[in-house]
Amino acid sequence: MKLLHLDAGLIEEQSISRALTARIVERLQATTPEVEIVYRDLVKHPPNHLSGEILAGAGLREGARNAHQREEAEITDMLLEEFLAAEVIVVGAPMYNFAIPSQLKAWLDRILQAGRTFRYTENGSVGLAGGRKVIAVSARGGIYSQGPAVDSDFQERYLRAVFGFIGIDDITVIRAEGVAMGDEMKQRALNTAHEAIAETITSAELA
Ligand SMILES: Cc1cc2nc3c(=O)[nH]c(=O)nc-3n(C[C@H](O)[C@H](O)[C@H](O)COP(=O)(O)O)c2cc1C
């Protein structure tokens, strides 16, 4: 089984999402010893944000691209191949300003490619990357699963929408929320997340 492990928490030593993705991967290694892991740190090595030049280059044949466009097209291909080779994707997705980190968005901008991960038809879009499993870690300071801020969640809902768009509806979210609401709430959130990891990752599920 091939696994792609992505992290996007900004401060490595303090990141809750990083600690939880590491725990998930550790557990997967224990339950599925033959797992092959590719790790990508999207903060240390962020893909460039798309620019007009990069986007234009994607539509050109190789010989017509300038050096920058060639380099960026190679990065897009490499990220896509890495993603498409994986059966399981473990993604650390902190909530920053109600949404995902821009580094993770920049990665998604390379992964959502017409003809590779989705296509448009007369009846709407069709996802081409189905059959994969996504385990997303959601870490957030406040509470968005219930209460007045539910509609401000552009993180978990966005991830479900974007992976769903490319055909992946098998998404498990491991959530640690309320981590900025005092020590007790933080500890409770971490305990809940660890319990969810233990329940989610069993050898039976990924066999
Ligand atoms: C730049 C920044 C923006 C944040 N924005 C939000 C937010 O909009 N809502 C929220 O509940 N928490 C917010 N937080 C708190 C984080 O979601 C929380 O610290 C979480 O643990 C981040 O994941 P990490 O520890 O892996 O970085 C923000 C934190 C930072 C650093």
Could you provide a short overview of the structure?
The protein is of the alpha/beta class. It has helices at 16-31, 52-58, 67-85, 102-111, 156-165, 183-200, 203-206, and strands at 2-7, 36-41, 88-94, 118-121, 124-127, 133-140, 170-177. Helix content is 41%, strand content 21%.
Question: Could you describe the 3D structure shown?
Answer:
The protein has 207 residues and is an alpha/beta fold. The chain has a single domain, classed as 3-Layer(aba) Sandwich (Rossmann fold), CATH 3.40.50.360. 41% of the residues lie in helices and 21% in strands. The strands form 2 sheets. The protein has a 5-stranded parallel β-sheet with strand order 2-1-3-6-7, sandwiched between helices. It has a two-stranded antiparallel sheet with strand order 4-5. Helix 5 links the parallel strand 6 and strand 7. Helix 1 packs parallel to helix 6 and helix 2 packs across helix 3. 32% of the residues are buried. The mean pLDDT is 96. It binds flavin mononucleotide. Flavin mononucleotide binds next to helix 1 and strand 6.
Can you give keywords for this protein?
single chain; alpha/beta; Rossmann fold; five-stranded parallel β-sheet; two-stranded antiparallel sheet; 21% strand; binds flavin mononucleotide
